[in-house]
From TrEMBL:
Segments forming domain M23ase beta-sheet core: 93-192
Lineage: Bacteria, Pseudomonadati, Bacteroidota, Flavobacteriia, Flavobacteriales
CDD domains attached to this UniProt entry: M23_peptidase (cd12797)
SUPFAM superfamilies noted in UniProt: Duplicated hybrid motif
Source taxon at top rank: Bacteria
Protein name per Swiss-Prot or TrEMBL: Peptidoglycan DD-metalloendopeptidase family protein
Listed InterPro entries: Cell_wall_metabolism_enzyme, Dup_hybrid_motif, M23ase_b-sheet_dom
Amino acid sequence: MQSFSEFIISLTPGFTPIIGNNFTHQDYTPVDLSEKNPELLKLEAASSEAFSVFINEYLKNKNSRVAFGGYNELRTLYNRSELFNNPENNRNIHIGLDIWAPAGTEILAPLDGAVYGVKDNSNFGDYGPTIILKHHLKNRTFYSLYGHLSRKSIENLEIGKAIKQNDKIAELGDFYENGDYAPHLHFQIMERLEQKCDDYPGVVKKQDLDHYLSNCPDPNLLLKI
């Protein structure tokens, strides 16, 4: 039997768009948001507006329109939020894929599925409006998560609604509604939801990393950016 990572690779033959608005494969460029990037030191506790400026300047310098990256990346930028940085729980390793694009950018379903969970995870530094899809393909069931959406994206969204590949499922939210981040999509794939339905950790602590990397493979195995 294929490993879950091998299965995810097999689902799409090549680049699979997850954002609309006429972005193409050539519009993407990788960005390093790890603790090793010295440019981020001055932004450790910076505002979402300042981080937006950083991303926009980075894209301008790269002559690109969309930045992506972050899987299994140790980040210091979560230090500003007690959700991640507190005496009981220091979570700072990102296990999803971030796609940095303007607020209002359309989010597209990369695969057929159905709406499984919907919630505004409204804590400071959290996902904000979130959608989880359930997929059953090639006799295997798994889940995908879309975080930092606009609030209107989840208004009246019905659990169980069927979703087809390339359907518009949401739009990116702005900082005042997306958990206080520069606009971006947090995309994550989970083999198991582990008794959750409308939330799942996207940032974890080192002690739990092996478990989460096993359950949450690199989303770029699917998107092939």
